[in-house]
Structure formats: C-alpha cells, structure tokens
Amino acid sequence: MASTELEYKPEPAEAPSARFGWHGEGLRTFKIAAWVSVVALLGMTIGNHKGHVEDFYLLGFAGLLVFILVRGEIKSRGKWKRRK
After folding, report:
1. How far apart are CA 46 and CA 16, in angstroms?
2. Contacts of 39 (CB under 8 A, 6+ apart)
3. CA separation for the pair 12, 46 (Å, rounded)
4. How many C-beta atoms surround the C-beta of residue 41 within 10 A?
5. For a Cys-Cys bond, which of 13, 17, 41, 80 suits 62, CB 3.0-4.6 Å?
6. Residue 73: pLDDT above 60?
7. What is the pLDDT averaged over residues 66-73?
8. Are 35 and 69 contacting, i.e. CB atoms less than 8 angstroms apart?
9. What is the largest CA-CA distance in the chain?
C-alpha cells in the first residue's frame, strides 16, 4: 500500500457508538433547532429598524429554512422518491 492510500476499516457492531445509538443523525433535534431558528429570525424583525434591508435578509433566511424543512418532510414521505 502506498503512503498516500488509506485503509478502509468499517466500524464494528460492538463499537461504543452502536450501543448508544449514535450511528444515525439527530434528525429530530436538527428539525427542532431549525424551527426555533425560524421563530428567532422572525422575532428579530421586531425592533427599531429605520431601514428594512435587514428585515428582508431575516425574512429570506427564515423562508429558506422553512423551504428546506418542508421539502425534507415531503421527500421523507416518499412523494418525490424515484421508483425503480
């Protein structure tokens, strides 16, 4: 094996992360954090803004997060999955 090649070693089933269920992502936690972020971004639009440029950015980022969350829910239900 050359010095630039890495040897692939799959993680054994008896690994500590397997016992505690850490193999998957904390998807539910990520979704909750994203929704809290959306509420926080929308809450930041309230204030003493003289111009509304920052409001447009806040609304844009909140809209992008909502789009990603809704799209993920639709994709996870199998409506957009390719059939083989």
Report:
1. 46
2. none
3. 51
4. 19
5. 41
6. yes
7. 93
8. yes
9. 64
pLDDT at 80: 46
Q: Is 22's pLDDT higher than 70?
A: no
DSSP letter for each residue of 7-57:
---PPPTTSHHHHHT-SS--HHHHHHHHHHHHHHHHHTTSS--SSSHHHHH
Arithmetic mean of pLDDT, 11-38: 74
Residue type present at position 11: E
Question: Can you give the residue ranges of every domain in the chain?
Answer: 52-78
| Nearest alpha-carbon partner for 41 in 30, 29, 55 | 55
Q: For residue 37, give both structure tokens.
A: 């972020």
Handedness of CA 28, 33, 37, 40 (dihedral sign): positive
- Considering Cα of 50, then 56, then 62, then 63, what sign does the dihedral take? positive
Question: 80 with 74: CB under 8 angstroms?
Answer: yes
